[in-house]
Amino acid sequence: MMKKHLFYKLGSKIYPLRWYIIILWVVIILACVPLLINIVAPFKTTGFKDENSQSAKTQEYIDKKLGYDSANKFLIIYQSNHLRANQSLFNKKIKQSLSGLENFPIKHDIFLPSDNKHQISKDKHSAYVVVIVKSQEPLDADMLAKFTAAIKKPSNMTIEMGGQAIFVREINKETQHDLYKADFIATPVAIITLLVVFGSLTAALLPILLGGGCALIILTALYILGESWTLSVYTLNIALLLGLCLSLDYSLFIISRFREELHNGIDISEAIAITAETAGKAIFFSGLAVLISISALFLFPINILFSMAVGGIVAVVVAVITAVIVLPAFLAVLKNKINLFSIHLPGKNKGHHSPAWRWLAEKVVAHPLYFFFPILILLLLLGYPFLSAKFGVSDYRITPKESESRQFFNTYEEEFDVKSLTPILLLIQSPHHYILSQDSLSKIYTLVQKLKDHPSIDGISGVVSSDGKLTKKQYINLYSTPKKFLAANIKKLLATTTGYSFAVLNVSSNYESNDAQTIQLVKTLRNTKVSAGLTMEITGTPALNVDVLTRISQILPWALLWIMVFTYLILLLLLRSLFIPIKAILMNLLSLSACYGALVLVFQDGYLAKYLNFEPQGMLDISLLVIIFCALFGFSMDYEVFLLSRIKEAYEKNGHHNNKSIISGIERSSRIITSAALIVIFICGSFLVADVLMVKAFGLGIAVAIFVDAFLIRTLLVPSTMVLLKEWNWYLPKWLDKILPKL
Predict the structure, then answer these.
(1) Is 447 a domain residue?
(2) Angle at 573 between CA 570 and CA 575, to 5 degrees
(3) Each residue of 154-173: pLDDT tens digit?
(4) Taxonomically, which superkingdom (predicted)?
(5) Can you give the pTM of this predicted structure?
(6) Which tens digits make up the pLDDT trace of 513-536?
């Protein structure tokens, strides 16, 4: 007799309210549709920095004082096969190309290659122009379109444009495109898999219907939240992937349990109540485990992680409510018609027992050590590549090779020095004196001379440069000249690098921004002492990256502790066992290590890069690893909870016989678990066609982890471990059993 606990009572309320629930769900779906016309509009591609770090605050100070957001700096490369950049016709064509900016409504400064030889390539056939738009906010889509339209392509020359604003525009476009591509691939594959699992067209299409509804609600909720909060554009794809996977998984568990109860002759209302008490409760606790894991992202003061936490929580809440309340309402209406349009597949077992899985479970139970050690060794080997992982922050290479931004960066890398695009910025301040006074300039000159010979520094530029063209005295004489008599290029330099009491110096590294040498250079500069009367703060992409890496490494242990402690408590409450939650956590760590090992091989070392159409960055984005950890740690609990719930149910029914309950639980749940896993793998696999590298990596990482989790850990390692633990599996002190609430 089913004990009438909380979830049984919830299930018994759904049947009489079924039509109200369905009508409300349909109304919500219809209300979501109009908001999806321009779904990416409120989202940002920024958010990879620690907003509380000194480097972020320094960058904000510079932007505010100089009167423009750093995202409003544009570079335009001009190339000619016949003309050289030092010829007057080349420069005339550039000026004609930029003449349309005269009517651009926002004030801007233009830095021509004729004023700076560093803007001319070695072969003299390429040169770039720098345009700084003096706006405190990044240009919106309309203003950016006007800006790019104002720049015309000169005859017989090629032109390529880059900058953070253009990069953002392309990421937004590619993200929306990736959503459509993934949906186009994943939906038919999911339908076929569900059709094979259920053998009924009605049962197969119902999860797709509800999954589509979940997707609409998730995207709309994020759109609304994005209007008030700063959310990363990457949230869309990853929240949608998580929501779809959980929705389809949960639908499988609910529908399979409901059909099993109907097969046992239970009436509809009772079948709904029992399904809620069993599968519904397991789903609730699984969702709670995912929520706890994802909420750990709130501990990090980094916007992309905050965004993923918001997106993940929205996805989980929508998926759980849909599975536990909306889906049973549909089942209550369909009743036995859930089996309508049955398809008889050859060799498919019509019952709810699986002879093949029973056979495998019996083998594992009979010889647990034959399975335990080989699988454990295999999983450790899969995770081994992670020991050589290198961490960093993503750069322009996350965009597809065909994109405008990527082509710009590739050209810049060929003709100039791409490292100069991400310099270290030194904010030099003279709190009590004019920064261009003789005393301050002398001290800045001394600092530049001190730093210029550092082996990691390629060059320093600003009001004082390391090129040796001018002496200290010449700099003092130059800047003592009244501004109205200064050359136009010097006026622009001062306007974009100095204020009354501060100056910004650009330090170009000999290495890329994520390289260990550049990271060490940032630390060296921070420890460099400046002359009395001056202060120095460090910012720029390399410094921002260092602070992100440092901050994440500081908080990560606390996030892990948060996840593991609360996951343990949730499983303790659900399974009423002291040791099984510990085992579950260790199993999750094994699937995570396999996932990270695969990410190192593919996205750091470049295996399969040719086939997956991306350029390896030589490191892993540390933010992505944290997101995957938090999402996957909860996600893996999905299968663990469902499997152990069935084993515990059998354990209580057959007189606490450990081995029999393991065989029964595996037999009744493994087909559904592996089918659910296949759907998740196909959905995540569909994101491998994504053009944005972070989305591609997330899809591969989750797919690998779920494959390992469902086909190796849950079906082989978990049962063999439980056989070895014997009666300790379900050990719970009597005093603890009395105080734990029974849900």
Answers:
(1) yes
(2) 100
(3) 988 999 998 888 887 887 77
(4) Bacteria
(5) 0.84
(6) 888 899 999 999 999 999 999 999
